[in-house]
Amino acid sequence: MSIRLAINPLTWTNDDMPELGAETPLETCLAEAKQAGFAGVELGNKFPRDAATLGPILARHGLALASGWYGSRLLERDVDAEMSAAEPHLALLQAMGCGACVFAEVSRAIHGERTTPLSHRPVLSDADWAVLAPRMTEMAQRMSSRGLRLAYHHHMGTVVQSEAEIDRLMAETGPEVGLLLDTGHLAYAGGDPLRAARRHVGRVAHVHCKDVRAATMAAALRQDLPFLAAVLEGVFTVPGDGAVDFATVFGVLAEGGYAGWLVVEAEQDPAKAHPLTYARLGHDHAAALAARAFTR
């Protein structure tokens, strides 16, 4: 698979705060994603979840399905139970020809809680890691047998948020567990997307190209805002509108042989950040940098 650009529908309509973009139909999201230049999209809350329905809709817009989020609870249930819970999602991704599953452990997570400060987010004990890592490795092995790579999404407000936690996850899981490198979440967590890309490029299975507004991020951290409150303040934006050095990150990914989707993702309030305008900005910036990095 060559490098292709996709966008997450969070630009138009928010999964965690459904009132944001509630009035925007799926057809608008897809039509504008194509208009902005994207080849694919990730799943969102307005997407039908069966391939027989979704496939023709995406085909009508000339879009592929890049992947979709799955929130696991491997700290709370064994792999058999998790595979059973994940089956409808995995079956959809498989039927739609996806190569990776966006996968995040959401046990104890606070990212969807609107009044809980980020400083209260869960932190794993050594005993927790001893449960989570082998279960995730087994989960990834089972998914691999179906042609899907587990792409682990580190995320603010969850048990794997910091750069050190990403490092530990990669160290304690088998090679079947891939990494979803999310530049915005890692920057917000105080990490370095470039350093993480260099360290784990061989495990990167999917990329979310999210930018951060540095001043807004600093204020959110200073005020210890809940994650969703920071989103409403505008902590995230599309590539080209923030502080992340995508040119250098893309260069590291290219040198490491990454071949997959680059997904523009920036959850913002669509009433403040006009979706098509930002979709175009994110596409054009990422496309120009990717063309230079991946065609050397």
TrEMBL record:
Pfam families: AP_endonuc_2. InterPro entries: IolE/MocC, IolE/XylAMocC-like, Xyl_isomerase-like_sf, Xyl_isomerase-like_TIM-brl. Residues 30-274 form the Xylose isomerase-like TIM barrel domain. Gene3D superfamilies: Divalent-metal-dependent TIM barrel enzymes. It comes from the Bacteria. Transmembrane segments: none annotated. NCBIfam families: myo_inos_iolE. This is Myo-inosose-2 dehydratase. It comes from Neoroseomonas lacus.
